[in-house]
Amino acid sequence: MKRIVSAVCAIALFASCNVNYQKTKSGIVYKIFSKDTGALIKPGQYVKIYVQYAIPEKDTVIPTSNFGKMPGYSPVDTSARSQHTHMEILTKCRVGDSAVFILNVDTLVKRGLIPQYDKLFGRGDKITCKMKVVKAFKNEQEIEADYQEEMKLEQAREGVAIAKYLDEKGIKTQKTKNGVFVEITNPGDPSVKV
Which residues, in sequence order, are CB contacts of 169 under 8 Å at separation 6+? Predict the structure, then answer.
């Protein structure tokens, strides 16, 4: 809820401050917040990004959003199938840039990027998005090394989140050497040796 309100407030603030939004060929309204350093992302490169999608009218953050979680890794695709997606914005960004943009659900359905209208994606809905370009890579080997480091960080984040949850709920657990939390609800006979 707080994230959606933040995203809506940010977009409203940009609009009210008369920030100049631009529009892509496929109709995405966007704004890039850039430090203007480094080269633009190029087709064929690989990127590490955070993306969040929300539908403010329904107070919903779409589950594929990954801010504060494991980043996404992707080759930069500028083919026709990538139109009206975050890919269309990527080649306008540099490493370190952030962007906000709005996708039209009707366009996504028409292009087959969303299979059909449903409870989440209704006619006329807009998807507000934010994106952060974290890093660019030249090849898949560089991505693999970075991905392994991110996996270690994600495991640590998950461990902290689980420990916090267990503590808040007053659940007493033991942690194995592999990091698994175990609650013993019916201890066995301590005199039995295995």
Answer: none
